[in-house]
Amino acid sequence: MENVHVLAQRVAGRGEFLPLSAEFYRSNPIEQAHALVAQLQKTLELNKIINIFSIEAAKVLPFLSLQFHSTEGVVEMSGSKHIGQTVSFDLEVEDERLGQLIYFTKQPVTVTIKEQLQKLHSILLYPLRNALLFHRVKKLATKDSLTGLGNRSHFDDSLNRKLERCRRHHRSFGLMLLDLDNFKAVNDTHGHQVGDTILRRFADLLSFSVRGTDTIFRFGGDEFAILVDDDHHAVSNILAKRIQDAVHRDLLLKQHEVTTSIGFTLATSKDDHLQIFERADKALYKAKNNGRDCSFAF
Questions:
Q1: Is 74 helix (H, G, I), strand (E, B) or coil?
Q2: Which is catalytic among the residues 144, 181, 222, 271?
């Protein structure tokens, strides 16, 4: 949007300039509101909501980036450039704070432009709240409530997508299965509260040990899985050693003599989800039989 020349006209009695497209909102507010609502109601995806809204907001204020900050994270419009001055607006509906919209712009942001943006924000509020609720429900459906990792349902979907890409592009990936050695004894001796603390600590150690491109899941109990975004056994082996080193150094796990056994394998273009899972599970079984606190590859 940097090279767009904006036509503007003076607002009577204010001595301020407003883009001519924004003046259309002033003269046709009901028509424009209905059109924007119709567009926003077509989706419940946060990024699509922000992109749709950014097109309309740009008619009032030419900007280089639009971000929405909430407890769910940061969503921004496509093609954002984080330069220029920023202007922020808190968004609330029925005493509920949704988050904050932040515009990056090189244009002067006058009082009149702020007023026009706030009118647009009032149209955005309810579709945005619905999208946030949808995002939260969707996240709950795919997350393990104790650790915040992906759950079994999320794992199954992710594995099937990985396998489809593997068949299409002939690029393998790793599947790693892990469980905790001596965990049942800890639960039986110290109770589930201590056990839950250990599971959360182990989940944190996994998150610190893998790369940003790898994905971690908890199936339930002390069973975990990692989808390793690499087609070499050596990478999975390095990650396994890194995880076991982190477990050995952790004071809580060391106190309760908890270690981890790991089995891993690489996908092939002929695999289905049962075949690759069975190989990784056999590798985990081998690690258990080899004395635990070790890894094995199939």
A1: strand
A2: 222
pLDDT value of residue 29: 65
Distance (Å, whole) CA 259 – CA 202: 10
pLDDT digits (tens, 9 = 90+) for 264-292: 999 999 999 999 999 999 999 999 999 99
| The pLDDT of residue 152 | 92
> DSSP letter at 12?
T
pLDDT for the residue numbered 26: 55
DSSP for 207-220, written as a single string:
HHHS-TT-EEEEEE
- Residue 35: its pLDDT value, please? 86
Report d(CA 172, CA 91) in Å as an integer: 45
E strand segments, 39-141: 65-70, 73-76, 85-93, 96-105
In whole angstroms, what is the distance from residue 120 CA to residue 287 CA? 60
Strand partners for 259? 181
Angle at 201 between CA 200 and CA 203, to 5 degrees: 65
**Strand runs (DSSP E) across 13-152, as ranges?**
16-19, 65-70, 73-76, 85-93, 96-105
Q: What is the pLDDT of residue 73?
A: 86
Residues with Cβ within 8 Å of 55's Cβ and at least 6 positions away in sequence, in order, are none
Provide the token pair at 15. Answer: 């001595």
Q: Which two tokens stand for residue 288?
A: 């258990």
Is there a catalytic annotation at residue 222?
yes
Tokens of 277: 């899972």
* pLDDT beneath 50: ranges in the chain: 1-15, 17-22, 24
- CA 98, CA 103: separation in Å to the nearest integer? 16
Chain segment 113-163, per-residue pLDDT in tens: 999 999 999 999 999 999 999 988 887 788 998 999 999 989 998 999 999
Domains of the chain, first to last: 8-142 (3.30.450.40), 152-297 (3.30.70.270)
